[in-house]
TrEMBL record:
HAMAP family: SerC_aminotrans_5. It is found in: Cytoplasm. L-glutamate binds at R42. Residues 4-354 form the Aminotransferase class V domain. GO terms for biological process: L-serine biosynthetic process; pyridoxine biosynthetic process. Its EC number is 2.6.1.52. This is Phosphoserine aminotransferase. The modification N6-(pyridoxal phosphate)lysine is found at K202. It comes from Azoarcus taiwanensis. The keyword Transport does not apply. Pfam families: Aminotran_5.
Length: 366
């Protein structure tokens, strides 16, 4: 078997050791006589899995005691509607728009506000600048009476990352953050946020699982007509098990959390991610055949978009990359070009192989 270096933005690569352990435990988990997908979600075996997963996640993120961890379904996109349904409470919320995902979030929130009551306002948008940087702190305009401030702290499509979380918290309203594509890539203080959420398929596990971590004081504010399945407080009160949760996704996430702890935790992962991203950006900046158009201060460590000197070479670049065992480098259809997603599971060797290939391709076509 020959595995490629998988640069997909999501579903993304998982640590090989996690996949091998899951394969070993597919037919039988820990003497249970069956695999995880076959277990009752209310039985002792799965209870031990989900409790360990939550505790390891709490350890990694230093989750305060007054925050609840929810393992939900529906993906991060469902949260675009679920957040105002739970937090807007007839008031107003402000949104920072710095890329495709935060733009989608605000549009969905506006739809929900028109249906349930309340108002959505735009704190700032960088769209006029081509989504090439995160918003500066002094550009975010708030009055202080907002129910929450929503941000996407890593824009997967455009390759933009926010690095100053305390500046967001300084506005004095609960910060709600879509962290789908960089959660667990570096340490941060969770108290800077009222709620964070993330689809699992980037740095946590398989698609189908969504992690929400919410301050307890924000629970119990849901719109009166909210379905029980979408009410954070109901899900928290039921340990994320009002219905059958995504059991296998939680199991894989638990293996990933344990793997992260074995690697040295989030400080160690940040050092590795800095090294990978710096090497790739330095290569791109030092080769006039390639370019990255994002403000260097906002460049994502997880998603590195780049373009070739001539777009007409894109097809050949991708075909030759696939042949070289470098997969999923095509940029998102809305922006074109290339994108290398180098999440936690991508080893430095994968980035080095990509740079070697890019150098060879440039020499052959330059």
């Amino acid at each position: 078997m020959s595995r490629v270096f998988n640069f997909s933005a999501g579903p993304a690569a998982l640590p090989e050791s996690v996949l091998r352990q899951a394969a070993d435990e597919m037919l039988e988990w820990n003497g249970a006589g069956c695999g995880v997908m076959e277990m009752s979600h209310r039985g002792a075996a799965f209870t031990s899995i989900v409790e360990a997963a939550e505790q390891d996640l709490r350890d990694l993120l230093a989750v305060p005691k007054d925050y609840r961890v929810l393992f939900l379904q529906g993906g991060a996109t469902q949260q675009f509607a679920q957040i105002p349904m739970n937090l807007l409470d007839g008031g107003k919320a402000s949104y920072v728009v710095t890329g495709a995902w935060s733009r989608k979030a605000v549009k969905e929130a506006e739809r929900m506000a028109s249906a349930i009551g309340g108002r959505i306002e735009l704190a700032v948008s960088t769209e006029a600048h081509g989504f090439r940087r995160f918003a500066a702190a002094d550009e975010i305009s708030l009055r202080g009476d907002e129910a929450y401030l929503h941000v996407c702290t890593n824009e997967t499509i455009h390759g933009i990352e926010c690095f100053d979380f305390p500046a967001l918290a300084a506005h004095g309203v609960p910060v709600v953050a879509d962290m789908s594509s960089h959660i667990l890539s570096r340490p941060f203080d969770l108290r800077d946020f009222g709620l964070i959420y993330a689809g699992a398929q980037k740095n946590i596990g398989p698609s189908g699982l969504t992690v929400v971590i919410v301050r307890e004081s924000l629970l119990g504010r849901a719109w009166a007509g909210i379905p029980q399945m979408l009410d954070y407080k109901v899900m928290a009160d039921n340990g994320s098990m009002l219905n059958t949760p995504p059991t296998y996704g939680i199991y894989i996430a638990g293996l990933v959390f344990r793997w992260l702890k074995e690697q040295g935790g989030l400080a160690a992962m940040e050092a590795r991610n800095k090294a990978k991203a710096s090497a790739l950006y330095d290569f791109i900046d030092g080769n006039d055949f390639y370019r990255n158009e994002i403000d260097p201060a906002s460049r994502s460590r997880m998603n590195v978009p780049f373009r070739l000197r001539e777009d007409s070479l894109d097809k050949a670049f991708l075909a030759d990359a696939e042949a070289a065992g470098l997969a999923q480098l095509k940029g998102h259809k809305s922006v074109g070009g290339m994108r290398a997603s180098i999440y936690n599971a991508m080893p430095l060797e994968g980035v080095q192989a990509l740079m070697q290939y890019m150098d060879d391709f440039a020499r052959r076509h330059g």
